[in-house]
Amino acid sequence: MRSPRFRPLASATVSTPAALSFDPALLSALGEARLVAALTGAGISTASRIPTFRDPDGLWARFDPRELATPSAFARDPKRVWNWYARRRERVAAAQPNAGHFALAQLERRVPAFAPITQNVDGLHQRAGSRNVIELHGNIMRVKCSREGRTIERWEEIAPEVPRCPACGALLRPDVVWFEELLPESVLGAAEDAAERCDVMLVVGTSAEAYPAAALPPSAKAAGAAVVEINPRPTPLSGEADFILAGPAGRGALGAGGADALARASASFRAVRAPSATALRV
User: Which domains does the chain have, with CATH numbers?
Assistant: First the structure.
């Protein structure tokens, strides 16, 4: 574990993102950061009209996840599961990245190194321009062989059957992590590595309750990173965050102009503190 770079605060510093006025200590943290990580959850995609799972009107309020999002559900009724995900794929394909997605992609271009980690399966970060996204739960726009796990780019769909792997004939399934399944070791390892190495972690639009993703911010903080929470309401993480930007993802700090203002301000701070730095991309 490296020596803590930022001293823990007695209480989180709450900024008002709508005013685009950021705490100098936050700018200092970003200005000195070699690696910024961003952990995102369903809240960043609500402005793209993709419903969350656990809200009162969310997907799991209307559907039983045990019947649609488990290996056993797929084994019992693969056609029902395939059709349900096919409808969700259509909805996601019609959605567009929002200001929050574009803000993080913009911030990525302005800091030395950036590690986007998402619990979402919608692929909107990539469509907004983020690179090397660590997808903890997979991507609903991909399918894979249910037997061998390889990603399948093209398949033949003959109604009313579930499509089959062109290589081995096994049923195809969504390339997402279901309940009762573990996250891929390589993906989780990449996320844990980013958390342990980052100097700043942005936690955006997530309640920070679902593990193992919920362990990433505490891991980053324990390794000396500054943790910045961007969420409209308090979460279990709020008491541990160093900075809180209270507001929905896609507005304020991650709204139109907000990320640019934050990135430019932190870049200016870096220029003042370290004029000889060459790693910054502006």
Answer: 1-50+97-137+183-282 (3.40.50.1220), 54-94+140-176 (3.30.1600.10)
